[in-house]
UniProtKB/TrEMBL annotation:
<protein>
    <submittedName>
        <fullName>ACP phosphodiesterase</fullName>
    </submittedName>
</protein>
<keyword id="KW-0276">Fatty acid metabolism</keyword>
<keyword id="KW-0443">Lipid metabolism</keyword>
<dbReference type="GO" id="GO:0008770">
    <property type="term" value="F:[acyl-carrier-protein] phosphodiesterase activity"/>
</dbReference>
<keyword id="KW-0444">Lipid biosynthesis</keyword>
<keyword id="KW-0275">Fatty acid biosynthesis</keyword>
<dbReference type="Pfam" id="PF04336">
    <property type="entry name" value="ACP_PD"/>
</dbReference>
<keyword id="KW-0378">Hydrolase</keyword>
<dbReference type="GO" id="GO:0006633">
    <property type="term" value="P:fatty acid biosynthetic process"/>
</dbReference>
<dbReference type="InterPro" id="IPR007431">
    <property type="entry name" value="ACP_PD"/>
</dbReference>
């Protein structure tokens, strides 16, 4: 899942929100590098990434993409499912999305952030990366930016058109799987757990 989903699944307290984002920017064992609340958020982020890597419904969604695009299908789903969450936010949260994202951006301005997140956070807030995904067209620009940063940009050729074509099916996939992720996150939050190693090879581990 991408940042908006991780933030929503990770909990509402400031340390939970920070940990939900840090999971993409902090690698390796934690062992007291951060506060217990932030480390619990990182652990939950990693557990969610591990679940989505192996969940059968995510496998079905990835298989919907043609040919070479399946190699980046995990990244495409991360972006598209954040779009679905932003689009349907009121179904999953009583707090309006603009209020939620403003709270996250304010927290990022106040916190001591990992180096890579410290560089990204001002642009994230200024351009409203979290809320802007409500607009499906924004994904096209996000994919173009991502392709320019990768060694094989051709893997993203036609990706936005594929998302357009698969829009109804992927939306239905999201509606089926996201409540399961919510239930999983709630169970994880209620039990102590150490953070698993960061193994996700796409966008989830930073």
């Amino acid at each position: 899942m991408n940042w908006l989903a991780h933030l929503h699944l990770g909990g509402n307290e400031p340390e939970q929100l920070l940990g939900s984002l840090y999971g993409d920017f902090v690698k390796g064992a934690l062992n007291g590098r951060f506060s217990p609340g932030i480390e619990a958020g990182i652990a939950l982020h990693r557990a969610i990434d591990q679940l989505t890597d192996t969940h059968p419904l995510f496998a079905v969604s990835r298989a919907r993409f043609p040919g070479e695009q399946r190699r980046v299908a995990g990244i495409l789903l991360d972006l598209f499912f954040d779009h679905c969450l932003a689009r349907d936010w009121s179904q999953y949260s009583a707090e309006p999305l603009p209020r939620f994202t403003a709270r996250v951006y304010r927290l990022l301005r106040q916190a001591e952030l990992p180096a890579r997140l410290r560089v990204i956070a001002p642009r994230m807030a200024a351009q409203d990366w979290l809320g802007s995904y409500r607009d499906f067209a924004v994904l096209e620009r996000a994919l173009e930016d991502m392709a320019r940063r990768l060694s094989r940009p051709e893997l993203f050729r036609g990706a936005f058109l594929a998302l357009e074509r698969l829009y109804p099916k992927l939306s239905a996939d999201f509606a089926e799987v996201y409540p399961q992720l919510q239930a999983f996150a709630a169970r994880q939050a209620n039990q102590p757990a150490s953070a698993p190693a960061c193994t996700k090879s796409s966008s989830g581990c930073g």
